[in-house]
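ZP: hey, is the iron/sulfur cluster complex queued? I don't see it on the tracker
AM: it wasn't, my bad. submitting now with these inputs:
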Amino acid sequence: MIYWVLFLLARSVEFLLIASEEMSEMKSQVSLLRCKDYRLEDVHEVVKRSFDNLGGLGTFAKSGQRVLLNPNLLSAKGPERAITTHPTIVIAVARQLQELGCEVFIGDSPGGATQGVKRVWNNTQMSDAATTVGATLINFETSGVYDKSVNGNLYRLSKPLFDFDLVISLPKLKTHVLTLMTGAVKNNFGAVPGVRKAEYHKNFPKANDFSAVLVDIFSVVKPALYLMDAILSMEGDGPSSGEPKTLGLILASTDGVAMDAVAAGIMGFKPGQIPTTTIASERGLGTGDLDQIEIIGERLSEVKPKDFKTPSNKFWKLTPRFIIRLIEPYFWIRPAINQELCTNCNTCVENCPMNTISADSEIPTFDYEKCINCLCCHELCPEGAVFLEKSWLARRIGR
Ligand code: SF4
Ligand code: SF4
């Protein structure tokens, strides 16, 4: 009898050891494929192969389901500016869903929604994309919100992201002057309708705290699938005032954190430099560890460009705050306006969370005493007129 008890005990321990070994060997998968331009046939084929690398779109989408596509629609600019997800990506994903018998919807909350969502849909060519495939555009600003509590913070998030059978996030690969990059995790900030986004910048002005907010939102929105448009990306001072950069890539994954880790590697960031990836990894929402990611398709080292420009304030962002405070009088970076480009549209004035931009003079002016350096004005200026003004020292050691 004792013999059998010991035997069963030993087999149980053996079973548990094997299971835990297998679990630790399970890696997040990220599909990484080349797609040189936005020719619809090519995009369609690469999008299909991307989904096939993850088991096929049919693994996630079933006939009769209502599926919401969530592209990055930051501002009312044409796709050639690389600020928003390209409409061809949306068309390709929509058609493949329709082939499976799904009904397709498209929605996102733009950054500066003060000037109208329809203008954003038209200028980003999302209206054309919706017409082409017979999809319905959803206005997140008027769809109502659900209250979601995460880590003691209350988030009021657009209902459609929770009401559809399936959500597929379609982020754009770009740099970002506040969070260094924007990809899968940051794309879910589109769940916050309209100017409410500014409240989070006001309440969480430090990049790390704001990144934790992004991860909070990411943890509840939970799209089932991510497909990233990295054919034309943005380098430099993104997410709206950088320069378009052709990478010719499409990424796909069910793990948005892993996808961002791979995207960050392509842009030339070192592991651990992107706060959203680090925080989300620590919370077990995905993996940011490249050793734990199986990249299917191209090798990261082979697609990584030699000359990708990261944000010009990267050094400032990555330097510990106590050091910055010590050298602050000599080392500062702040928003300023290029008069030649400013059209006096007042988007920056309306979206500044601290009401520190005044519209009283010919062009807006800043009260730097109240500025929290959230760089919303830089992000949302539709003309790229807000630039990062730097002290002498910041210009010399800033990159
Ligand atoms: S700086 Fe940009 S956002 Fe502000 S008023 Fe000028 S054009 Fe508009
Ligand atoms: S001026 Fe610009 S950077 Fe400063 S608080 Fe306002 S939006 Fe943020």
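AM: back. Residues 337, 342-348, 364, 381, 383, 385-386 surround iron/sulfur cluster (ligand 1) (CB under 6 Å).
ZP: great, adding it to the tracker
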